[in-house]
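pinning this so it doesn't scroll away 📌
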Amino acid sequence: MKFFDRQLEHLISLIVLVFAVYWASRAEDVLSGSLYGLDTAFWFWLAIAIPIAHQVFVWITWRAEFLYSTITRTFGDRGFIYYSVVFMLLLIARPISITFLAISNQGSLQTDPRVLNSIALVLLVPILYLFYSLVKYFGLKRALGIDHFDPGYREKPLVRKGIFKYVNNSMYIFGLLILWLPGLLLASKAALLAALFGHVYIWVHYFTVELPDMRVIYESKVADSS
């Protein structure tokens, strides 16, 4: 594995996705409204920029650490802590930015609120089960990618308990559903479009960063069909 392995596909996919959401955002009422004196367009592109910054950050740090031990050589044992702080700040910023976007664009989706609220309630079930399984069986450190930092974690078996017993890629399938909740609860076209971007883009990360890394880190434990 090389530092830029699969990153041409990453870049091409990102360009296509950004162009797609730009084109979709030009539809009627998608970018209507404002918040704190800033147009919805500002909040929309902020909600697009944050997941890009997050996932590019993860790619750079994971590959730099796994291939060259850059983070630990620079910061020692504190390296993973520093990385985790930045990771969590960017992760938390994703639903927060979409919430601000949804408030700015509230009511742009002309659909019965009861329908939207019901959908949000249904989505909440797997979200909560995922977070329960993440805490009980998976562990926060593994979720953050400590296996790129600590070789000891590479000998541990893959987690097959809780929600992970039924769906291998639960964090990508169900975890990102949280991004859809603000748009549904506030009937915001722009927030739903930003959530769609984030949910699709996380799969770009999976196929161009995480899966190639896992195949090297865990070798035979990760099948080609994962």
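📌 and the second one:
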Amino acid sequence: MQNPDFHGDILERAQKYASDNGEMLGLFLTSGELIGFGGLKNKGDGRAELCNLHLHPDYHGQGLGRRLAVTLMDDAERFGYGILELHVTVTQMAAIGLYKSLGFRETKRQVFDVDGASYDTLFMEIAL
């Protein structure tokens, strides 16, 4: 799993999303260890972004990422959003497969250059 610190203060981000008709959910073991998380961010005009969806690699293939994504999709609909969008780097084939299986469709591709590295990024969305 990507280091959660990459996203900054997760609690602060969760509070920001929640204050603007969104949320941040976490997946925890019974021991309290964080193994995954994902968020809904208000994008305006009836759109939300499924963002920061990460699951520790030790827990891939168990349906947990799908369960988290579906919960966030259901919540986006309950919050009143009509469109849910996301972006993912093209190297994340398992994530792209998951999103396609959930009904997301590709809307565009764009390459971002950040600190000398290029990230080929796929944008997807689904009508709720």
